[in-house]
Amino acid sequence: MRLQHLNLLLTLARTGSMRAAAQVLNVSQPALTKSLRQLEEEVGAELVVRTPKGVRLAQAGEILAARAAVVMREIDKAREDLAWHLRGAEAQVTLGVSPAAAILLAPGAVARYGARWPQVRLRVRDTLYPQALERIRSGELDMALGPLPEAGGGGDLAVQPLFESQSVIVARAAHPLAGARRLSELAEAAWVLTGPAQGPGDPRALYADEAQARALHLQLECESFSTLLALMPQLDLIGIMPQGFLDRYGPALGLVRLDLADPLPKTVIYVTHRADAPLTVPARRLLDALLGEAAQLAGHP
């Protein structure tokens, strides 16, 4: 299976047209059709379906295209790594970060990395762990900082713990329950679910009694803590957020921590990357910076 065949399939998926794909690849349409036929004969399946509006991938084509995209990204990274090694060329690293990591770890690590490797363009993307893991697998992210699901990352991913993030219960200062001292006092409150179900922002995980957890009133769902910050000062809702996030933004927005006697969970923040593909040299240098910053947070030299 040739790289040009994989590139052809990805171009067809992107353009949805034999003619447009031929123009992008700078080949004649008959030559493109011949190459597609060769690829279909090799895999033993129809990869493209012709429609009145153009073409679309058949199911087998979608399966192959998903793998092809990863292969082509790895080829691009190999070229980038060689250019970095041979000519000191500019490079790019893409990092996904969760809210706690963005506040506590990323600023120092990014500053340290940028000072040492100014020729590397660092792209930082907000991401929550369910999406982060898939984006790592697809090659969209080189690595990600954040929690992991209970099942872990999977054998195809390398994970390393960095630090623990304390969760706190928050509300606006004028909330009628701002003076609550026990979780049991919040059982009838209106809650906000931040991020994925069963994640660090899910209040149902705070209650050991399953019936009580199921009975919680989840009035609002937010995908990100930034959205939570925009809404909570105006609403009588109870929510969960990282302590560092509240310390940084809460006072200016009139948000307060509920001083509960109940112990609250800590979330382990990991750095995750693919185990079956080597990091580029610039990405490895970023990993070193992240580990160094995590060691400082933990009080180690």
In short:
With 301 residues, the chain is an alpha/beta fold. It contains 11 helices and 11 strands.
Task: Please tell me about this protein's structure.
With 301 residues, the protein is α/β, with parallel strands linked by helices. The chain folds into three domains: 3-80, Orthogonal Bundle (Arc Repressor Mutant, subunit A); 91-163 and 268-299, 3-Layer(aba) Sandwich (D-Maltodextrin-Binding Protein, domain 2), CATH 3.40.190; 167-265, D-Maltodextrin-Binding Protein, domain 2, CATH 3.40.190.10. Helix content is 44%, strand content 23%. The protein has helices at residues 3-15, 18-25, 29-43, 59-87, 99-104, 106-116, 129-138, 210-215, 225-231, 243-253, 281-297; strands at residues 48-51, 54-57, 91-97, 120-126, 143-146, 157-172, 190-194, 217-222, 239-242, 255-257, 266-274. The strands form three sheets. Strands 3, 4, 5, 6, 9, 10 and 11 form a seven-stranded mixed sheet that branches. A two-stranded antiparallel sheet has the order 1-2. Strands 7-8 form a two-stranded parallel sheet. Helix 8 (210-215) links the parallel strand 7 (190-194) and strand 8 (217-222). It is globular. The N and C termini lie far apart (50 Å).
